[in-house]
Amino acid sequence: MRSHQVPEMHRVPLTEIVLQIKKLGVGEGAESFLAGSLEPPNPAAVAAALATLREVGAIDDSDAGNLTPLGHHLATLPVDCRVAKMLVYAAMLSCLSPALTIAACLSYKSPFMSGQGRGGESGAAARKSLAAPAAKDKGSVAAGEQSDHLVYAAAYDGWARAWHDASTKPGVNARTASARYASTNGLSVETLRQIAEMRGQYAALLCDAGFIAPVTDSNRRRSGRADSNPWGWADDTNAAYNADARCAPVLKAVLTAGLYANVAALSADADSGRKTWRDSKGEVGVHPSSLNAKLGVPGERPPTFPFLVFHEKVKTSRVFVRDSTTVAPAALLLFGGVMDVRHETGRVCLDGWLWLRASAQTAVLYKKLRKALDDELDARIAGTRGRKNGGETGGGNDTLLKTIRSLLTEAASS
């Protein structure tokens, strides 16, 4: 046995520590700085961290790998850089409440149990029920959206609402009512409580970073502890940062921002016509546990859009993607990778492999919107947004961000 524990830098991804080194500006670079540590990490691990940060957009493509405006903000949030990016854009595009749930689930685990809930549906059946188009009448943000991620948000929302509604009725035990909802819908109460705790922590981090309004004393009283009131101040439907919390296209765009370049596209074989999902590395399958497992299969419901973003890949009998969501081309044009516009064919290629149909005018528009978002993030670094305006930084009254939200909504319905 080892005489001491393996250093953490040898056990975990280095994206967060490299981001902090960049933020502090110590040494001549992350590679040389880390090489001077007592037990330096593998240079390949440092290179992988830098590649991830470039992919996320936290550092630029220069040899020095300088922080971008987005990178400056991600460095202030001590969480995984992809989760942090999702939270930043969720606050800016005013869909924070469901994004907090999704971020917590991606960082922790699904709230659904694999077995049968006591006296209720199995987790799989409950997920399908929340995702069914008819569930829109019940207020499910996941209704008809072909999204594992939005189902997580809908499930948590139902549990928290059951607690909240019961707490307003005399003689009704909120804990019992919410536990009954969880059991009926195949949810783990323990997991939901942990997700509630993480949501509160993420919201507090965004407050400290100036992206949402500071927590007031009245907010604290209304929120309480996560295990005694999961319906907290971050779920305030009247707050600017939740103006589009029920708008699936905007929420999916935020997911795309966080998960890119984990994207798969549906393509047809030129000879057989067989449709398959492919990412930048090759053919992938949608995991059988996903709501989207049969999308693209002949005779089954077709995907709303031929693009998926996903959380991770696993390899068993073949390579599968887990926790996926169909997304519109507009979300990819806004938050995707390097854009190569092919004027003569009316197509756009992202990162050299992902093809989308878009006119040159449309592509130019999205390039300008990308630049405008970077400028907005840069302005927040300089202190000309957010805190200077009383701390309300959700973007609810900002013309640029309102325009982007409207554009995403219209593009998803066209």
Protein topology:
Blueprint (H helix, E strand, L loop, with lengths): L14 H10 L5 H6 L7 H14 L12 H6 L6 H12 L3 H12 L15 H9 L16 H20 L6 H11 L4 H20 L8 H7 L24 H12 L3 E6 L6 E5 L2 E5 L20 E9 L3 E8 L2 H7 L3 E4 L4 E4 L3 E4 L2 H23 L16 H15 L1
Textual characterization of the structure:
44% of the residues lie in helices and 11% in strands. Among the domains are: 8-67; 81-246. Helix 1 (15-24) crosses helix 3 (43-56). The chain is α+β, with helices and mostly antiparallel strands and 414 residues long. The chain has a 5-stranded mixed beta barrel with strand order 1-2-3-5-4. The protein is built from 15 helices and 8 strands.
Briefly characterize the structure.
By secondary structure, the chain is α+β, with helices and mostly antiparallel strands. Among the domains are: 60 residues; 166 residues.
